[in-house]
Amino acid sequence: MQRACAAALLRKGITIIHNPGHSNDDQAAIGVVTALGAIAEKQADGTLRVTSNGVQPVKDEVNCGESGLGIRMFTPIISLADRTITINGTGSLTTRPMDFFDTVLPQLSVDIQSNKGRLPLIIKGPLKPAPITVDGSLSSQFLTGLLMSYAAAGASDVALTVTDLKSKPYIDLTLKVMEDFGWKVENRNYGSFYFPANASAPKSGELEYTVEGDWSGAAFLLVAGAIAGDITVRGLDVFSTQADRAVLQALMSSGAKISVQTDKIEIGPARLKAFHFNATECPDLFPPLVALAAYCEGKTVIEGAQRLTHKESNRALTLREEFGKLGVQIDLQDDLMIIHGGKVLNGATTYSHHDHRIAMACAVAGLKASSAVTIEAADAINKSYPDFYAHLQQLGATVSLQ
Ligand SMILES: O=C(O)C1=C[C@@H](OP(=O)(O)O)[C@@H](O)[C@H](O)C1
Ligand SMILES: C=C(OP(=O)(O)O)C(=O)O
């Protein structure tokens, strides 16, 4: 949804976005494109109609809410404008690292002033695409922004080189959205991205785009099904490029009873056993998979724990702390997270640390705990999945919101 908003801003014309999200991150993206000159109107049929003539800011300050993707994708896009703009955010975003931009944007003719690598950022473009090398090891989100801004700036016969890229499927998703909107970029084995000479700009006029169902949110429902099902989840594209589709592999390795069809996934409990999974490329799966592993007999090992340090919370530590309250031992050894599963979970009062995925993981873990699980700062879910508790209730869970 956030990528679709950015692409609809960059493309000149009208874009009708079907199945638009309404989470806080989605609303922040709509706010950003509006500040950058697009008109975004919710239609009676539920679609979002975006009318844009490219990046033409109508404000001097843009707020990305709490979205890491939002700020890292939109900063290079905002840099396309020939105007000084302050970029800000809220909550955990104010402490997440943005120093990538301090080193990269000046190489693209953009002036930047940051608060020692944190927000706010004050930038002045216009960005000029150049054949530079960037570090992809902290986050793929910066590259998503550069790819979109290079394309919109008409990059021609230029390669953007990336070292040690992580979260690669998120770049596949970016390239897929760009292709759907009419921009061509050649992915050279995730080491460089080539913008061909004389590539045609996207066609103007009206374009219809449908936002896929979100595998990252759905992963919690699927795990809920494996722990306490049987349930059916619809609305997911089983051929999606989304990183978190990989939750299916982990569920299968755990022995969950699962049937994957093109229009629905049916999932229910079975004897769950510990599994091994590498989440380096899909770090958002850690929280739901920890909830799953808590119910799996034996020691589950998940690789990629170091990817979690700079998320909405330091997620390896927050998972260990909050699942500890439920009686689940988690060990952290370098890049490995080891979850000792299979014992009955006890009820307890947990704390989301204002991290949406920690709140959802605790809620799912509570489904078969010996007594109620309370989640403090439970409204964190609004960042990505405001209907999450309603969906759990719809599936039969008792959820009371205070
Ligand atoms: O591009 C995206 O939409 C995202 C990329 C991932 O971040 P990193 O690339 O920082 O791992 C993911 O964890 C984040 O929730 C969303
Ligand atoms: C949506 C998420 O993150 P970000 O703020 O990095 O976009 C997430 O980590 O689940």
From TrEMBL:
<dbReference type="GO" id="GO:0005737">
    <property type="term" value="C:cytoplasm"/>
</dbReference>
<dbReference type="InterPro" id="IPR006264">
    <property type="entry name" value="EPSP_synthase"/>
</dbReference>
<comment type="subunit">
    <text>Monomer.</text>
</comment>
<keyword id="KW-0057">Aromatic amino acid biosynthesis</keyword>
<keyword id="KW-0028">Amino-acid biosynthesis</keyword>
<dbReference type="InterPro" id="IPR036968">
    <property type="entry name" value="Enolpyruvate_Tfrase_sf"/>
</dbReference>
<feature type="binding site">
    <location>
        <position position="315"/>
    </location>
    <ligand>
        <name>phosphoenolpyruvate</name>
    </ligand>
</feature>
<feature type="binding site">
    <location>
        <position position="68"/>
    </location>
    <ligand>
        <name>phosphoenolpyruvate</name>
    </ligand>
</feature>
<feature type="active site" description="Proton acceptor">
    <location>
        <position position="284"/>
    </location>
</feature>
<feature type="binding site">
    <location>
        <position position="3"/>
    </location>
    <ligand>
        <name>3-phosphoshikimate</name>
    </ligand>
</feature>
<dbReference type="GO" id="GO:0003866">
    <property type="term" value="F:3-phosphoshikimate 1-carboxyvinyltransferase activity"/>
</dbReference>
<feature type="binding site">
    <location>
        <position position="284"/>
    </location>
    <ligand>
        <name>3-phosphoshikimate</name>
    </ligand>
</feature>
<protein>
    <recommendedName>
        <fullName>3-phosphoshikimate 1-carboxyvinyltransferase</fullName>
        <ecNumber>2.5.1.19</ecNumber>
    </recommendedName>
</protein>
<comment type="function">
    <text>Catalyzes the transfer of the enolpyruvyl moiety of phosphoenolpyruvate (PEP) to the 5-hydroxyl of shikimate-3-phosphate (S3P) to produce enolpyruvyl shikimate-3-phosphate and inorganic phosphate.</text>
</comment>
<feature type="binding site">
    <location>
        <position position="141"/>
    </location>
    <ligand>
        <name>3-phosphoshikimate</name>
    </ligand>
</feature>
<feature type="binding site">
    <location>
        <position position="96"/>
    </location>
    <ligand>
        <name>phosphoenolpyruvate</name>
    </ligand>
</feature>
<dbReference type="GO" id="GO:0009423">
    <property type="term" value="P:chorismate biosynthetic process"/>
</dbReference>
<feature type="binding site">
    <location>
        <position position="311"/>
    </location>
    <ligand>
        <name>3-phosphoshikimate</name>
    </ligand>
</feature>
<feature type="domain" description="Enolpyruvate transferase">
    <location>
        <begin position="6"/>
        <end position="391"/>
    </location>
</feature>
<keyword id="KW-0963">Cytoplasm</keyword>
<feature type="binding site">
    <location>
        <position position="357"/>
    </location>
    <ligand>
        <name>phosphoenolpyruvate</name>
    </ligand>
</feature>
<keyword id="KW-0808">Transferase</keyword>
<feature type="binding site">
    <location>
        <position position="141"/>
    </location>
    <ligand>
        <name>phosphoenolpyruvate</name>
    </ligand>
</feature>
<dbReference type="GO" id="GO:0008652">
    <property type="term" value="P:amino acid biosynthetic process"/>
</dbReference>
<feature type="binding site">
    <location>
        <position position="140"/>
    </location>
    <ligand>
        <name>3-phosphoshikimate</name>
    </ligand>
</feature>
<feature type="binding site">
    <location>
        <position position="383"/>
    </location>
    <ligand>
        <name>phosphoenolpyruvate</name>
    </ligand>
</feature>
<feature type="binding site">
    <location>
        <position position="167"/>
    </location>
    <ligand>
        <name>3-phosphoshikimate</name>
    </ligand>
</feature>
<dbReference type="InterPro" id="IPR013792">
    <property type="entry name" value="RNA3'P_cycl/enolpyr_Trfase_a/b"/>
</dbReference>
<feature type="binding site">
    <location>
        <position position="139"/>
    </location>
    <ligand>
        <name>3-phosphoshikimate</name>
    </ligand>
</feature>
<dbReference type="GO" id="GO:0009073">
    <property type="term" value="P:aromatic amino acid family biosynthetic process"/>
</dbReference>
<comment type="pathway">
    <text>Metabolic intermediate biosynthesis; chorismate biosynthesis; chorismate from D-erythrose 4-phosphate and phosphoenolpyruvate: step 6/7.</text>
</comment>
<comment type="similarity">
    <text>Belongs to the EPSP synthase family.</text>
</comment>
<dbReference type="Pfam" id="PF00275">
    <property type="entry name" value="EPSP_synthase"/>
</dbReference>
<dbReference type="InterPro" id="IPR001986">
    <property type="entry name" value="Enolpyruvate_Tfrase_dom"/>
</dbReference>
